[in-house]
Amino acid sequence: MSSVLPNQAESAGGFVHPSLPSPAPSSIFSSSTATPSLPRQRNHPLVPGSSKETSVINHVDSHILTINRRHAKKFSSSFADQADADNGYERFREVAKDIETIVDVLWVSGTPSLQIPYLISLAGLINSYLPDFPFSPRATFRLMRKMDSIFASLLQGEDVETGAILPGFGGRRGIVSTTEKVRIKSITESTRIIIVDVQGRDNVEEDDDLDDVADDDDNDEAGYSDYGDALGRWELESARVYERTIQLLGDELGKQEVS
């Protein structure tokens, strides 16, 4: 697998805020905002070393490289004279759209050996890029809800929205290693802090429509119609970032420490 994975994931999730509040257990699976729908998964994981697995790896790697390149163009004048179809990012919702495309591909693959490390890497990438753009609440929280749903599903071995057993798990919950759980916990807790910081700035993107975000027709289902421009609702949403994932990891890692 590509060497892009460990470096990005570890560098982006390197600290844990000691006073970060945990979500209330009673509300862990009852957010008032619906999760963006996930595409249908394969029935079985990709065979290790198969041409299909290689194709997915190459596809994901190339898209991650494109995201990194477009981000670099935002800050480097060395790309200014290059004729390239991929322009530098101007808004985070453009980043979110490209990342969400990769997330969907990984989810459809139904292959935990690809999903877990790549999603950790993408979560770290989100943390790295969020501070570089004006805050784009709708696109950001849409992506966060989808990432939270997928991480929580992988931790439990079943789709948290439907209860269906995930491909490659067979009812088991130990597919995600303890090391990976610690990394996910660190990254997701860091994401909360980063979003609160970015949200507190003055450069919030006001024209934050979803024209460039995938699944535009699902805006109402995703809960956007309930928000309008009320700042208080965005603040409430920021408190729910990775709500399910953080609660599950807190419970699981806490039990391991006790034992």
Describe the protein's architecture and organization.
By secondary structure, the chain is an all-alpha fold. The chain has one domain (4-13, 27-32, 41-258). The protein is 53% helix and 0% strand. It contains 8 helices and no strands. The protein has helices at 4-12, 51-75, 92-109, 112-129, 137-156, 178-199, 231-238, 243-258. The longest helix is centred in the N-terminal third of the chain and has 25 residues, at 51-75. The protein starts with a helix and ends with a helix. Residues 3-32 and 210-228 have low confidence and may be disordered.
Task: Provide tags for this entry.
single chain, 259 residues, mainly alpha, 53% helix, disordered N terminus
| Global mean pLDDT | 80
Q: Determine the structural class based on helices, strands and strand pairing.
A: mainly alpha
Our count of helices gives: 8
Q: Provide the domain count.
A: 1
Sheet with most strands: none
Number of strands: 0
Which parts are unreliable, with pLDDT below 50 for 5 consecutive residues or more? 3-32, 210-228
Helix-strand topology string? HHHHHHHH
Biased composition (Low complexity): 26-38
InterPro entries: Tfb6 (IPR031349)
Biased composition (Acidic residues): 205-223
Region (Disordered): 26-53, 205-226
